[in-house]
Specification:
3-hydroxyisobutyryl-CoA hydrolase, mitochondrial, globular, alpha/beta, 3-hydroxyisobutyryl-CoA hydrolase activity, HIBYL-CoA-H, 354 residues, 7-stranded mixed sheet, EC 3.1.2.4, ECH_dom
């Protein structure tokens, strides 16, 4: 076993198991971890037959270290976020079987490691959310790519509300590839260490997969409503659809959206709904611009972090009070090109970045 303080690498012959190991912070990913993870995954692609990523304890990852991110300079923000984007791109194009055990909490930046994996394992303990709009931010971590490609406008719903989706529902909507009960994971991991090919891995995962106690969940009833309401071309149309839908669920959803940053909602809505027209790399490049521009431009993020995470008064003073005050021009500024040194580059374009 090779060990750093925050990332552990277990080597079983030609299988590498990489573990996020910051349980006291719910495996929130800081700058050191982004760098170590990228380096380990890059080496493992050439040295191992199978790679597994998991979290320590009962959590996969609570996402990026938000407090660290907002205190960073633009240069540091660019460096850290580049590692996340390049990790997503690396995993999405991985030449070897790449398996992620999403056992427990998964939030925000943890999606950089989970969502591009060919094999995404959810359990009965899995709870996934993209909660960025809660603190006035936009949905990042490649979400403009993977959320935009979910059916029934579920990605738009998930991104805007920040609502959680549980294990088997993740499989149902396409966020997970397999549902396996958590008590089986140790044995599954042991079996995967004997695999060499995608076919070997698929046999192990299929043999270990489970069906839920009930074939239907609450989400089955909600999907038609989500599809109807969140298919609006604009955020204003979504609000109108929810008002006209008139159910208890619709009113609850409107109440949730009312707590979010109007600017964050508008930026996230544009990012997700237009993301389906972009390639993965173009989505990631655009998210980098959004990240840097949130650093440069006046935004709701610092106020959101103050109100939700620091002072915890839950009373953020957003730049705009309602979505109807946020103009297209207000949103445009976050999508503008940044100085070249802050653009996103991928490995073949940049040498000796790390």
């Amino acid at each position: 076993m090779s060990t750093s303080k925050l990332i552990k690498l277990f080597e079983y012959g030609k299988t590498g198991v990489i573990q996020l190991n910051r349980p006291a912070a719910l495996n929130a990913i800081n700058g050191e971890m982004w760098k170590t993870m990228y380096q380990l995954m890059s080496k493992a692609e050439h040295q191992k037959d199978v790679v597994i990523v998991k979290g320590s304890g009962k959590v996969f990852s609570a996402g990026g270290d938000i407090k660290e991110l907002i205190s960073n300079s633009p240069e540091k923000t660019h460096f850290v976020y580049s590692l996340g984007c390049r990790s997503y791109d690396l995993i999405a194009n991985y030449k070897k079987p790449f398996v992620v055990f999403v056992d427990g909490l998964l939030m925000g930046g943890g999606a950089f490691y989970a969502m591009p994996a060919k094999y995404r394992i959810a359990t009965e303990r899995t709870v996934f959310s993209m909660p960025e709009t809660i603190i006035g931010y936009f949905n990042d971590a490649g979400s403009s790519y993977f959320l935009s490609r979910l059916d029934n406008h579920f990605g738009v719903y998930m991104g805007l509300t920040g609502n959680q989706v549980k294990g088997f529902d993740m499989k149902k909507v396409g966020l997970a590839t397999h549902f396996i009960e958590s008590h089986k994971l140790d044995e599954v991991e042991k079996s995967l260490t004997k695999c060499k090919t995608h076919e070997d891995v698929e046999k192990v995962l299929v043999a270990s997969s489970s069906n839920p106690p009930s074939s239907t969940t609450e989400l089955d009833d909600l999907l038609p409503k989500i599809n109807k309401c969140f298919g609006g071309a604009t955020l204003e149309e979504i609000y109108t659809n929810l008002e006209e839908e008139g159910s208890e669920w619709a009113q609850k959803t409107l109440n949730i959206l009312a707590l979010r940053s109007p600017t964050g909602l508008k930026v996230s809505h544009r990012s997700i709904t237009t993301g389906k027209n972009f390639s993965l790399r173009d989505c990631l490049k655009r998210e980098m611009r959004l990240t840097i521009n949130h650093n440069f431009q006046e935004s709701d993020v610092k106020e959101g972090v103050r109100a939700i995470l620091v002072d915890k008064d839950m009373k953020p003073n957003w730049l705009h009070k309602t979505i109807y005050e946020v103009t297209d021009e207000d949103v445009d500024q976050y999508f503008q090109p940044t100085p070249e040194k802050y653009e996103l580059y991928f490995e073949e374009n940049v040498k000796n970045r790390l």
